[in-house]
Amino acid sequence: MRFRLNFSYVYFLCFIIVMFLTSPTHAETKKISVVASFSIIGDLVQQVGGDHVGITMIVGPEEDAHVYQPSPADARKITQAEIIFINGLGFEGWLSRLINATKSKGTVVDLSSKIKARQTQGEIDPHVWQDVNNVKIYIQEICQALIAIDPNNGADYQKNSQLYIEKLSKLDNEIVESLTNIPLDDRRVVSTHDAFGYFSARYGVAFLAPQGVSTEAEASARDIARIIDAAKAQKVKAVFLENVADPRLARRISAETNARLGGTLYSDSLTGAKGDGATYLEMMRHNVKEIVRALKP
Ligand code: ZN
């Protein structure tokens, strides 16, 4: 009887030791809990943070951040976060209320705070990521914020940022080059909402849009008529669908202007993992491929 008891005790001790070594809360494997407000920021934080961060998104792939309605589950994600990365410039207008309501102790990092924002028709344009060079600034902000909270892994964050910024430079060159064969006069297109102002300014493709910089307000009959007239007058070549917008509007404008219906541009959201815009780099390459395909002479 005594021998059996001792044997059980040793067994129990071994069990405790194994549990301790494999526990996810063991210091070696603990990840920084990060919330990203939407899918594009989620990808950028992953690129910089690598294995050191555990990322939860609020607005997931193929979802529209402009009109998102947060749930109680989102409030829990924010309560548990050590850092919350947001785009700012009014893109996630509902988010500051949510953060305040949860009394979160997490650090809020507004990635656009160092960006000179564009204004269009009196409104601030939050779609900063449509110029690849702006994303380099986002990456630097993410890197600094992660180093501040986790200095031990600072060298990794710096190395990851540097490598990713090199990829962004390559992408920026690629976009400029792939558009060079399209005459400037042909670089006029229509999108549903006004999400491509930064892309236009950097890459020289003019976008007309019946809806403003947010999808919150629907385009009025007057807005639609104005865009149809402008598209006809400027001989716009293509009308694009967007993954976060109602396709009916684009189809109608295409039909009424004889501009060809282009593919779907990913304006404010990545696709799911199986789509061809699952990362920021893929999303931008996809958009440019669609634009070039619709506009090439
Ligand atoms: Zn938008």
Q: How would you describe this structure in keywords?
A:
297 residues, alpha/beta, Rossmann fold, 2 domains, four-stranded parallel beta sheet, 14% strand, globular, binds zinc ion
Structure characterization notes:
With 297 residues, the chain is of the alpha/beta class. The chain folds into 2 domains: 32-175, Rossmann fold (3-Layer(aba) Sandwich), CATH 3.40.50; 181-295, Rossmann fold (3-Layer(aba) Sandwich), CATH 3.40.50.1980. Helices cover 47% and strands 14% of the residues. It has helices spanning 2-22, 39-49, 72-80, 95-102, 132-149, 154-179, 197-203, 221-233, 247-257, 280-295; strands at 32-38, 53-59, 83-86, 107-110, 119-120, 123-124, 188-190, 206-208, 238-242, 260-265. The strands form 3 sheets. A 4-stranded parallel beta sheet has the order 2-1-3-4, sandwiched between helices. A 4-stranded parallel beta sheet has the order 8-7-9-10, with helices on both faces. The protein has a two-stranded antiparallel ribbon with strand order 5-6. Helix 4 links the parallel strand 3 and strand 4. The protein is globular. It starts with a helix and ends with a helix. Zinc ion binds at residues 66, 127, 193, 195, 267-268. Zinc ion is lined by residues 66, 127, 193, 195, 267-268.
Strand order of the largest sheet: 2-1-3-4
Task: Report the sheet with the most strands, covering strand number, pairing sense and barrel closure.
Answer: 4 strands, parallel
> Kindly, what is the distance between the CA atoms of the first and last residues, rounded to a whole number of angstroms?
91 Å
The dominant shape is globular
Strand content: 5-15%
Structural class: alpha/beta
Number of helices: 10
By CATH, the architecture of the largest domain is named 3-Layer(aba) Sandwich
User: Could you state the CATH homologous superfamily of the largest domain?
Assistant: Nitrogenase molybdenum iron protein domain
Low-pLDDT parts are none
Topology order in helix (H) and strand (E) letters: HEHEHEHEEEHHEHEHEHEH
